[in-house]
Write a structure and sequence with these properties.
The chain is mainly alpha-helical. It has six helices and no strands.
């Protein structure tokens, strides 16, 4: 079905609300772009699919980096470990597929399937963020436990820096994403292992 993801951008908690603090509106804007690109990917020819995949890999890398460097550490003391740990583990799954896609040129048999699975996993993750994490964060913002507008300024500045690095060098440069030991602890917490 065409357009199965992007239609969510106008529904419920996925809508960018007038009262969304800057951090939430910035991230939801990216979520809208992801849903639209994954919808476009479903019916794209091979050449367009390769271009969409390159854009998605770049955007997802930047998005996951700013969440892991800035958003998650700021929210963890306010929201607790569970939501944040789940986000970190889901990011790891997405990063594996992004890394695989970055090694391909789009002509491979499994290329479209990898893009599709990345879409399924990403949309599941961003839907949960919109519906749960962001709503909990907004409540914490409203009660003065966290300043999501100031956090949004930090997210926006880091996002711009990462995109500038990509434009200049083709790489995001040094990032401070979740470290392997953090990922292992988060994975154990989420899976109960």
């Amino acid at each position: 079905m065409s357009g199965k993801y992007a239609q969510r951008n106008a529904q419920d908690h996925h809508v960018i609300a007038k009262d969304d603090p800057l951090a939430i509106s910035l991230l939801k804007e990216e979520h809208h772009i992801f849903r639209s690109l994954f919808d476009e990917a479903e019916n794209a020819d091979a050449k367009r699919l390769a271009a969409i995949a390159r854009e998605l890999c770049m955007r997802l890398s930047v998005h996951m980096t700013i969440e892991e460097e800035i958003l998650y550490p700021a929210l963890k003391p306010v929201l607790g470990d569970d939501e944040i740990n789940e986000g970190i583990v889901e990011h790891q799954s997405g990063k594996r597929i992004v890394a695989e896609l970055e090694q391909l040129d789009g002509t491979e048999d499994l290329f479209a399937a990898k893009v599709h699975v990345l879409g399924e996993e990403t949309v599941h993750h961003i839907d949960e963020e919109d519906e749960d994490m962001f709503e909990d964060a907004k409540a914490a913002h409203a009660s003065g436990k966290i300043d999501l507008d100031a956090l949004g300024e930090r997210l926006r500045a880091r996002q711009a820096q990462l995109y500038d690095d990509i434009a200049r060098t083709g790489e995001t440069g040094k990032t401070s994403e979740a470290q392997p030991d953090e990922v292992e602890r988060a994975d154990r917490a989420v899976t109960g292992g």
